[in-house]
Amino acid sequence: MSRIIDLTGRRFTRLLVLYDTGERKNGRVIWRCKCDCGNEVDIRTHDLTSGHTKSCGCYNRECAAEVRTVHGMSRRGKQHPVYWIWSAMLQRCENQNHKYYKCYGGRGITVCDEWHDAQVFIDWALANGWQKGLTLDRIDNNGNYEPDNCRWVTRKEQARNRRSNRLITFDGKTQTMAQWAEEVNVKDKVLWDRINVLHWPIERVLTEPVNN
């Protein structure tokens, strides 16, 4: 077991480490820290030492405000659509009070350092296929938000990439249940029942026609 390095009393940007909370996440120590703004937050060792987390969240809010002012993200009182995607991404990964934090930051999903700058993210989005109506999707659903792991897709394509989607391999081809349902022209609910209720073999699941 690796030796725990005591970070008590050390400063990381705006955060002063107060004490070890006694909690562990993925084997890493969770430290209680006090931000310069007065808020207290619990932060993992790696997020402190890597510079990933610089404050309780106030730093990101200030950066966002600066981006809106300096880079003209506000147009007649309205934010650019990509700005809101950027903001939501950070909230899911870094705001422990966000309703979806447990599905993102809570399971170790992080936002790369360069994307903590809203303008950098927006420039990447515009250069990599963003269009109105598309959503930000991680290619590896267990990977982080970073340029090499993200793309712009339709909501339908994103739904197919959810962790909960079951992958089915048949005749050397692997697809989600939704994709097979579309290919064989059978509702995915029917396929689900054939697999989980009737316990049919996959070949029969995908080849037997629906009895009207």
Structural class computed from helices and strand pairing:
alpha+beta
Number of strands: 10
Mean pLDDT: 81
**Helicity level:** 25-40%
* Rg over CA atoms: 22 Å
Beta-strand percentage range: 15-25%
Unreliable spans:
none
Number of helices: 8
C-alpha geometry: elongated
Distance between the termini: 62 Å
Biggest pleated sheet = 4 strands, antiparallel
Give the ordered list of helices and strands: EEEEHHEEHHEEHEEHHH
Strand order within the widest beta sheet? 1-2-3-4
Overview of this protein structure:
The protein is an alpha+beta fold. The protein is built from eight helices and ten strands. Strands 1-2-3-4 form a four-stranded antiparallel sheet. A two-stranded antiparallel sheet has the order 5-6. Helix 3 packs across helix 4. The longest helix is centred in the middle third of the chain and has 14 residues.
Give the helices and strands, then pairings.
Elements: E1 11-12, E2 15-25, E3 28-35, E4 40-44, H1 45-49, H2 58-70, E5 74-75, E6 78-79, H3 81-94, H4 118-127, E7 135-138, E8 150-153, H5 155-159, E9 167-170, E10 173-176, H6 177-184, H7 188-196, H8 202-207
Antiparallel strand pairs: 1-2, 2-3, 3-4, 5-6, 7-8, 9-10
Helix pairs in contact: 3-4
